[in-house]
Structure formats: C-alpha cells, structure tokens
Amino acid sequence: MTSALGAAGELAIRSLIERAPLASSLADAFKSAGYKLALVGGPVRDAILGRLGNDLDFTTNARPEVSKKILFAWAGNVWDTGIAFGTVAAKRADTTFEVTTYRTESYEVDSRKPEVEYGDNIEGDLSRRDFTVNAMALELTQGTPIFIDPFNGLSDLGKRILRTPNSAEDSFSDDPLRMMRAARFASQLNFDVAPEVLQAMTEMSGRISIISAERVRDEFIKLLMSSNPRLGITMLVDTGIAAIVLPEIPKLQLEIDEHHHHKDVYEHSLTVLEQAIALEDRLNGPNLVIRLAALLHDIGKPKTRSLIAGGGVSFHHHEVVGGRLTKERLKTLRFSSDVIDDVSTLVSLHLRFHGYGDGEWTDSAVRRYVRDAGELLEHLHVLTRADCTTRNKRKADSLAAIYQSLEDRIGVLMEEEELSKIRPDLDGAEVMRLLNVKPSSIVGDALDFLLELRLENGPLGQERAEEELMKWWNAKEKN
C-alpha cells in the first residue's frame, strides 16, 4: 500500500520536521546524486506515536560505498562498521543517521552469521522486516513525501499488536533473534503479540541457539531496560526461549506442594525487579546493574532447596551459590567485566541485612556492611528494600523501619568516620618501618589486621595503631 501521506503520514512528517529537520537535507543530498532515500522502520513507527528519538534509520537504493560518499560529503564524518551488512552512519548536530541499502537478510540453518543480499526496491526490503509496525516507510525524495505501508502496519499500530509481514515461521527462520525482539517490543511499547507469532516462537524456540551471545545480550538488555520488562520476560519464559538463553529464570518456577510451603520464587523475582525499578531515582534513573541484580538475586535457590521435616523449605547459602551462577551466566552472555562483578557482588550480598536480626546493628557491623558494599552501597539499599514482597503490611512496615534505621546509622557514622574511605590507620610504608621488613606478604597481613581493628573499633589513631601492630607482631614472632 503506497499512498500520498494520509493522516498517519502527515503526523510522521510533522514529527520529523519538528524533531529531525536535517532528514530532508539528507534526502536532498541523495536525490541530487540520483538515489532514493526513505525513513524506515522504528523511526516511522515512533514518529506516528509521537516519540521520535535522535537515532534515525533510512533505506536507499544506493549501494553502501555510494552511501558512504554521500554521507561524508553531507555530514563531514562517517563510520562504516556495519558496511558488510549494507549500513553506514554519520552524525550531524545531535542526531545519528543510519543508512542501509535495500536488502534481504537470512540465516542458513546452522549459521550464526546472516547472509545479506541487496534488493532493488523498498517493497522487497520492507517485506523482510521483523514486524508490520516496523515495515512502514516515508519516502523523502519524490517531491511530496510518500507514506508506504504494504503490510497494514498502521492498522496494527492502532491495535497495539505485533504481527510479522509474512509468516512468522519464515520470519523467525530468516532471523531467530526476531523472537526476542517480539518480547522486547512488547515490553517497550506495551503491545500484544499475535497468537500465531507466539505459537511460532514456542515451536521454533530452539532456533535461538544459533544467535551469537552478543546479539542475545543486547536484545535482552533492551528488554530489561524497557518500561515493562515483566511482560517480555514472561513471554520468553512461556515460549521456552528463556530456557535456552537465560535458563536460571524459568528454573525459579519451583514446584510447590501442600506439605513444603515457600513463596513463588519466580513471581517474587519479577516483583522485586518491578520494586527496584520504582526505586531507581535513588540511582539517578534506569540502571542496568540493579535490574539484573533484582532479577537474578534468587537464582541460587533451585540448587540449594532443601525440604524440612514436618514442612517448610530452606535455601541455605543461596546467595553464595547465586553469586557464582550470576557470574557464570553473565560471562556466557558476554557482559562487561564491570557489570559481571557488580551484579554478582550484589547477589552475594542481598541477604546481608537479614543476617542481623531485628536491627541490633553494632558500629562494627555497620562498618563491615559499608566496606563490603563499597561503591555499590546505594544499589544494595535499593535491592534490599525491593526484596521485601510480603503481603503482610505489619511485617513489611517493620522491615522498612529497621532498614531505615540502618541507613540512618550509616549516615551518622559516615559523618563521624568517613566510612566510604575506611582504611587501616597505618599505611604500608609505616608498617615496613615499624616492623623493619621489606615488601612482602607480611605487610599485607599486617594491613589486614589493622583494617579488622579499624572495622571493629573505629578510628584508632596513630599511637594506638602502632601499639596494636607491635603486639600483633610480637605474638606472631613467638609463634
């Protein structure tokens, strides 16, 4: 369906002019060189929804090397890391412009790399897009902009539903990652997914295994950082895709019997994720580390589940096991080392608060809590608060009050002792001078001893620190 604007096209044009006035300038550059250019995919969808961003996607009949020359002349910069797939990009003002040659793209049965072939017309290009709402285009080089919608994407956009341009089976066979994209777009846009699409996702879930870990990771991050990640995660679990890319999550659906009761760990984890998101203002907005930690904090429970005689279930040390499993899974998904370390640390620490009973925190315990959390202290505050999902209001209020008292104690000790900068009262050079030793493991042991004293007693001062060090050293030499 190709039509002169129409209401949807007019809305897209207005949005484009207001948010991306340089798009028409780029179109003129391609037109002057004798080529076509159209805004395509997500930006068209978002323009119609009134949420156009600063990343614009275009499609053209120009081959990649030609697009590269036009973009460089127009923007003065260009990057071509995606040129093997027909894509080149440039940035002008605060907007990124990505231009891709008309193409078809598909995966062989056992290949992890797509095969790309260039097409001759925009209709063929749109037919290979993931969903109808992303298979609309706005042709910008024909004088009057033309709205192109061959698969009724506008109708599906109005119905807030995700369908594929052709059969879902063919679409997911061409690129299995589209199954995860369905879950991601559902979460981002709060859309339903057509029944035939869900059925294909379920029947073809195993095909996701041919997709590289990096592409799976990037798609999952987009889903997790959406406004409604529960929707997409539930879809991945229900279709069996999560069992392949993130198996620890569906494993949280522990069997519950009438004799051994425990809360639904899977549902609990999704609720903790939502409650952590509600507290993200404390972390200056959406935060990948806290969302991963909230979702994964209990993944050690299936491996540590133990039935208690007479009823009940225990999960001893599930935070330790969970920290290890978290590190392994995030490594498999090729997350950065910083994210892996931070998330696994939070998972390992998420029960620390509950180990101190009803709020009887000594100064020593507070210092150790802050020391172990380090730069993740605010994240740990958020995770611990989010981890309370009890429906018993009295219990929930009590836990919140106890944790608030801990935060207050931390605040007081922070002012008194600069807890975030806890160090031994003596440095390595002073230790070597006093003990008359050279750099060695002895110095490290001495500093560990002094740090433990500092954590237990607060600041010692130079004189007492030297006395305690010499007592420790004399006792060590006797042994």
Automatic annotation (TrEMBL):
A GO molecular-function descriptor: ATP binding
> What Pfam families does the record point to?
HD (PF01966), PolyA_pol (PF01743), PolyA_pol_RNAbd (PF12627)
| Gene Ontology biological-process annotations | RNA repair; tRNA processing
* Keyword hit for Magnesium: yes
**SUPFAM superfamilies linked to this entry:** Nucleotidyltransferase, Poly A polymerase C-terminal region-like
Keywords, A to Z, come to:
ATP-binding, Magnesium, Metal-binding, Nucleotide-binding, Nucleotidyltransferase, RNA repair, RNA-binding, Transferase, tRNA processing
Tell me if Cell division is a UniProt keyword of this record: no
- Indicate the segments forming the HD domain, all copies: 265-383
Cofactor(s) listed in the protein's UniProt record: Mg(2+)
Q: Which InterPro entries match?
A: HD/PDEase_dom (IPR003607), HD_domain (IPR006674), HDIG_dom (IPR006675), NT_sf (IPR043519), PolA_pol_head_dom (IPR002646), PolyA_RNA-bd (IPR032828), tRNA_adenylyltransferase (IPR014065), tRNA_CCA-adding_enzyme (IPR050124)
Q: What is this protein called?
A: Unannotated protein
